Amino acid sequence: MIFPVILAFLENGKDAIYLPVQVFENTGKGPTYLFFRINLFISMCYTIYVMVSLFANNILYIIIWVLNLFNYELDEYTIEVIQVINSTSWCWKQSLIALLVFFSASITSQPYEFGKNDGSYKYNIITMVLMYSVFISVVFIEKFFMCFMISEIRRKEYRNRIWDINYKTFVFKKLAAISEAAPGERKELAETIQPDFDPGFYLKYNDLKLNSVEGAETVAESIFGFLEVRTILYEDLEKFFPDNHKEVYTYLAESSEAKEKDSPLPITFEDLKTRAVALYKERTDISRTLQSRDIVINKLDIILMAVAMYFGVILVMILLGINYSGLLATILPSMVTFSWIFSDTIKEIYNCFIFLLVNHPYDCGDRVVIDGEELYVSSVDLLSSTFTGVNGRLVFIPTSTLFRAKIHNIRRSGKQFSEVGILVSKTTSFDTALKLKDGITKAVSESTKSFSGEIYIREFRAEGDNVKISFAIQHQSNFQDIKKKHDRRAEIVNILEREMKAQKIQYLNSYTFSD
C-alpha cells in the first residue's frame, strides 16, 4: 500500500486522507480512487490470508491458552475435540478466508445484494467466492464428523492397546539410550528421560528400529552389548527406572519360568530378545489394523462427501435465491431409480460398515475361530477380509458371509482354560483324583507363572479298561500366541507325570488336549 498512498498524495494532496472513507462508502471517482481501492482490496485479502493461516496453524496453543485463562480442566473429550478441530483446520481455514474475502469485496466495492445479479463479472466472482465459502463449510462439517468418529473409534477400541505398546516401546527406547551413554552419565539420564504425554491415538517412538524380527533382535543385542553385561539385574532396573522398576521388571521377565519374590531372577538376553520380537509383532499388528480401519473409513468418507456436496449445492442455491426445483426434478427420479436397482447392494454396504466399525469383531493379527476353523486375520477391507490358516493357507471371506458366522476372538479373550485328559488305572478312585488335583495345583503355583493355579476336575469316567480324568487348567493369558500355548502344554505334561509318579498312580502315556 506504500506506492498507492504516495500516488494518492501526489495526485490529490491532503484530500488523499479521505480516500479510505470514500472506498468504504463507495463514493469516490477517478483513476486514482480506483487504483487505491483495488490495492486496498488486495492488501486486505493478503492480510486475511496471513492472519487466518497463523490462527489455524496455532489453533492448538490458542485454544489451550483460552481454556487455561478460564481455569478449565482438560479432559479426554475436550482434548479429542481440540485434536479434531486441528486436523480439520484446512477446511474451516479455507471457508473463513473465503468468507472474509467476500466481506472485504463487499466493503471495498458496491455492497453485495443477494439474488440481484446484474450480470457483471464482479458480481459473479464475488458470488463464486461466497459459494465456495458455504460449500467448504458443509465439507468441514462432514470432515469434522468423520475425524471425530475416527477419534472415538481409536479412543474406545484401540487406545489401551496403543498406550500399552507405546509404554513398552518407551522401555526399550530408554534402555537403548542409557546403554549407549557413558557409565557416569547413566544415572542422570535415567532420571531425565520420561515418557511424553500420550493420548493413545498414534504409535510413538518410531525412530527405534523395531521394523523387523532381525531389527528387534538387534535392539536387544545392542542394549546388552553397550551395557557390557550378560544379564540385567533387578538392581540395575531400579537405577534405570527409579519410579516404575517393578512394572518394567514384570514386563521384561515375563518369559522367565521361575519366580522368586525375595530374589528376583535377572533378565537374560533371551528374555529381552523375546520381548523385543513380541513388541515388533504387536506394533505391526496395530499398524495394519489402523491402516485397514482407515481404508474402510475413507470409503465411508467418500460416500458422505458425495452427500455433503449435494446438500452443499442445494444450500448455496437457497442462500443465493436460485431456483433449484428444476434441478431436483431432474435428479430425484434418477436417484430413486438408482436406489431401487441397487437397494440390496446399498443395504449390504451399510451392513458391512456396521459390522466392521460398530460390531468390530476382529483386528489384523487376531487369532479367531470362525465356524470351528482357527484363522489369523491378515487384512480387513469393506467387502471382504483375508485370513491365514494355521497351515499358512490364505482364506478370503466376504464380509456379508461373516454377518451370520460364529466368531471367537482369542486375542480379546481373558484368561483361558485348557482341558487335558489322561488315562489311569481303573483302580484309581475319585479321592485319588482329588489328591492328584491338589498336587498339580501346588506344583503349578510353586514352579511356574504360566498358570493361575485354578484347576478343577471336569470329567471322571471309565473308558475301556481305564479311567479317564479330565482336568481344566486356567492359564495366565489367552491362546493368541499358539507357540506359547503349546509350550505351556508341555509344562502341564511334565507336571502331571511328576505328580502321578509321586503319588504312585498307574497311567498310560496318553494325553488329549482341548481348548
Automatic annotation (TrEMBL):
Residues 354-412 form the Mechanosensitive ion channel MscS domain. GO terms for cellular component: plasma membrane. InterPro entries: LSM_dom_sf (IPR010920), MscS-like_plants/fungi (IPR016688), MscS_beta-dom_sf (IPR023408), MscS_channel_2nd (IPR006685). GO terms for molecular function: mechanosensitive monoatomic ion channel activity. It is a multi-pass membrane protein. Pfam families: MS_channel_2nd (PF00924). The keyword tRNA-binding does not apply. It comes from the Eukaryota. It is found in: Membrane. The keyword Membrane applies. GO terms for biological process: monoatomic anion transport. Keywords: Membrane, Transmembrane, Transmembrane helix. The chain crosses the membrane at residues 46-70, 90-109, 129-151, 302-320. Its main location: membrane. PANTHER family: EF-HAND DOMAIN-CONTAINING PROTEIN, MECHANOSENSITIVE ION CHANNEL PROTEIN 5. Belongs to the MscS (TC 1.A.23) family. This is Mechanosensitive ion channel MscS domain-containing protein. It comes from Encephalitozoon romaleae (strain SJ-2008) (Microsporidian parasite).
